[in-house]
Design goal:
It is built from ten helices and seven strands. About 40% of the residues lie in helices and about 15% in strands. Strands 1-7-6-2-3 form a five-stranded parallel sheet. It has a two-stranded antiparallel sheet with strand order 4-5. It has two domains: about 40 residues, no CATH class; about 190 residues, Rossmann fold (3-Layer(aba) Sandwich). α4 packs across α5 and α8 packs across α10.
């Protein structure tokens, strides 16, 4: 009876691909197979210490592994997905994409030692306005795919900062240098942490967060974003 009702519901209100609006099949989730095939994947996770993201942070902060799922381009499908996630009340976009990427990472030894997945935090005022932190949804999906834990109660943002969108690298760094803090340092002592953000551009936010985490003895930090501007 429940299956019959579900089938009727999907017949009357079919789910469509968020990129092309084609009706999704039962085995498809969020994106149709055509759009999934055409996404600009980076494959950075297969070379986690020697890829454009890793090189971007060389000499800035010592990271264990780095990766981004997709290349970001203005006006492209990836920007549309990020826009849905951040501004159109679609937290499911983050969870689904995060889980897909987490399942890929889980197959590689470099990513199998993650103890905690940590989202880059939003200030409470900004999160209240948006309704959720998009990085939380990514962290939840990644943790699910990796088969590990995630927490939004380890790293917090104390200071409300201006939007980073139109700032250069130095201005971004000044904007976030002192805004993050740790709630329970003992919880992460000696742990391997996966720090998660939606898009990496200059890397200033990631750098500021990673330095806070790395101040705790024995902590190792890896970084993943769903998209990156870095080539």
């Amino acid at each position: 009876m429940l299956n019959w009702f579900n089938n009727l519901f999907h017949l009357l209100f079919p789910e469509t691909c968020v990129a092309c609006k084609r009706q999704l099949q039962h085995h498809e989730d969020l994106l149709c197979l055509y759009c999934q095939h055409d996404l600009p994947y980076t494959n950075f996770h297969t070379h986690p210490t020697d890829n454009p993201i890793a090189k971007h942070f060389w000499g800035r902060v010592p990271l264990q592994n780095t990766a981004a799922y997709l290349h970001f381009s203005k006006g492209g499908r990836v920007q549309h997905l990020i826009h849905l996630l951040k501004y159109k009340n679609r937290p499911d976009v983050g969870e689904v994409i995060g889980k897909q990427y987490g399942e890929q990472l889980a197959k590689l030894p470099d990513w199998q030692t993650i103890d905690w997945v940590i989202p880059v935090p939003l200030h409470p005022a900004k999160e209240l306005k948006r309704g959720y932190n998009q990085s939380d949804t990514l962290a939840k999906g990644l943790a699910d795919g990796l088969g590990t834990a995630w927490s939004r109660d380890i790293l917090v943002r104390r200071t409300y900062t201006e939007s980073q969108t139109r700032k250069g690298r130095f201005a971004r760094w000044i904007n976030v240098e002192t805004v993050f803090d740790l709630i329970d340092p003992e919880k992460i002592r000696g742990k391997h942490l996966l720090l998660v953000d939606d898009v990496i551009t200059t890397g200033a936010t990631i750098e500021a967060c990673a330095q806070k985490l790395l101040a705790i003895e024995g902590v190792k930090v890896s970084v993943v974003s769903i998209a990156c501007v870095v080539k």
